[in-house]
Amino acid sequence: MTFATLQRIKDVTDRNVLNLQEAKAAGKHVVGEYCIYSPMELAIAAGAIPVSLCGTKNDSIPAAEEILPRTLCPLIKSSFGFALQDSCPYLSAADVIVADTTCDGKKKMFELLAQKKPLFLLQLPQIQNTDAVTYWREQYAKLWQFYEQQFNTRITEDDLRNAIHLMNRFRSALKRVFDTSCSKPAPLTGMEIMECGFRLSFMSDKEHAIQLLNDLATELEAAPASQEKKRAPRILLTGVPTGLGSHKVIELLEKSGASVVCIDNCTAYKKTTLIIDEHKDPLTALAERYLDTPCAVMSQNPHRYTVLQELAQRFSVDGIVDLTWQGCQTYEVESYSVKNFVRETLHLPFLHIVTDYSPADTEQLNVRIEAFLEMLA
Fold it and tell me: Where are the alpha helices (DSSP H) in the chain?
């Protein structure tokens, strides 16, 4: 089924780079961010436009491998390759970069990247307790000061509260779209879910993005059920981030007959949960909510299992696929515990896929995916 608002979103977001360039020409600053732990709200409160810089394309990796180890994950290599080639318009437009010490590979890559642009490195604690929240709030306070110095501006508490309210509305609208896939059958394909979240994350006009998302949700909620999808096995994809260019596994799952109804990663459903308490001290509320993100870099990471159980039940899934990029040690090691939880607690079939951005293993993956889906049938 074709949805008119999806085409509108594609048409509008095809102009994202041009809109960003026009905003810069009008005096706007741009903040490039590499991780979900970097608070978009602080950048917006500083009057800047936050954009994601995580590399999702394979074609920038060869340049990165001239400097970085080939064994690093493709996300790190792709991101750094864009910087070396100056081939990412969002990185080129960024006045400053905000990064996080989520893994050893990233933090060492950021040392090299800091030679190219002003970079603020958030020293992410990898535990989730009261002491960590206090520390994380201090990191955000330093980021606040960094923006004020870099942009020669003053951020007020009201500025931050307004930014929190804006992003709460954006994430609520995005969640409304994603939650339509709780229906049987899901109105959106997994590729549409991924592309919608990915494209809108680059929109500089968040009010327009909110309008588009709510229009799409209304259209999806009113759409008649697709007869073709009724028997497709419903899959929850969890694990590492995906985007346009790193969507291989989503595409293969759906070409093999699956319906990817939920993508539990930080480029899709995970970011819809970052609803910030608007009644607390805003910096404390940001620190509490962002640090609570269930990522494999956290030790322990109990929230991931709670979230998986909730999503599996809410989206009525038939199986769970865990995606890991080659070289991503945190997600690959954690997959063992995720597998046991899915099979023994959720009593659902589980498939772990380790791959990269290249098409080299497509046929091998296709065989494994088809066998997994046949087992579900």
Answer: 4-13, 16-25, 40-45, 61-64, 74-85, 89-93, 104-113, 130-151, 157-179, 190-200, 206-222, 248-255, 282-291, 302-314, 329-344, 362-376
**Residue position matching structure tokens 């309210």:** 165
CA distances from 332 to 35, 171, 188, 351 (A): 19, 28, 29, 13
Q: In whole angstroms, give the CA distance from residue 150 to residue 154.
A: 11
Mean pLDDT calculated for residue range 180-189? 96
Q: In what order do the strands lie in the sheet with 119-122?
A: 48-52, 29-33, 96-100, 119-122
Q: What is the pLDDT of residues 163-176, one digit of tens each?
A: 999 999 999 999 99
Neighbours of 127 (CB within 10 A): 13
Give 307's Cβ-side CA count (13 Å radius).
24
Q: pLDDT at residue 100 above 60?
A: yes
Cross-strand pairs, 325: 355
Which tokens hold the place of 294? 């269930």
Q: If pLDDT is split at 50, 70 and 90, which confidence band does 19 have? A: very high
Report the predicted TM-score, pTM, of the whole model to 2 decimal places. Answer: 0.96
Domains and CATH numbers, the chain: 1-377 (3.40.50.11900)
DSSP-derived secondary structure letter, 361: T
3-class secondary structure, 33: strand
Torsion on CA atoms 29, 32, 35, 40, rounded to nearest 10? 10
Q: How many residues does the chain have?
A: 377
